[in-house]
Write a structure and sequence with these properties.
The chain has one domain (10-208): Arp2/3 complex 21 kDa subunit ARPC3. The chain is built from seven helices and two strands; from the N terminus they run ααββααααα. The protein has helices at residues 10-34, 39-53, 71-78, 80-98, 106-131, 138-165, 172-205, and strands spanning 58-59, 65-66. It has a two-stranded antiparallel ribbon. It is globular. The termini are far apart.
Length: 223
Amino acid sequence: MHIPDGFIDIPTSAAFGLLAVAGTAVALKKAKSVVDDRTAPMAGLTAVFIFAVQMLNFPVAAGTSGHLLGGALAMVLVGPYAASLAVTVVLGVQALLFADGGLIALGLNVFNLSVIAVLASYLAFRAAIRLLPKTKTAVPLAAGIAAFASVPISASAFTLQYAIGGNATAPVDAVFAAMFSTHIFIGIGEAMITMLTVSAILASRSDLVHGWSRKEVPLKVRS
């Protein structure tokens, strides 16, 4: 999913880079009102966890492999705005230090993975939460649904960028079919990792999960 330099032409990269900057600016402004002394460290830890887990690939069909994108997981843990910022930081470090995704293409990758993936996962998560029972056990399931939905939607965003300014010669419909079908399988892995991680955190520190609205009220000793 990380787009290298040269795959999309510069005008398209610049246009989506501006959209990525706008999305990041909105997330930064909104995050100031929701991130506090308790959630800020959680956002940092979430970014570190996503960075580490993205280094681990799992096999997909036809000899391809995939890895966690992390937008949905971060969204459930720290909310959509902090999640977008966390994934943006991860993408920036990967591009600058590990050449995982091009520098010119960084705006494309941020748009797909920090803006579109987080937004899609947030909408899917809220829809699932409304439909599922209002219990703590429903949160990991809703998170898994959101994670699964976010991956092919992000792949579709790449296909749109390729259709506008792709430098390769492959037909757009063939690129879409390959990207969408492959990322359905990657979405399954994304959903499983997200569900397991959210379940583990809910079991130990449910107050740290932004997606669990019914935070436990601490016991008070009354005389």
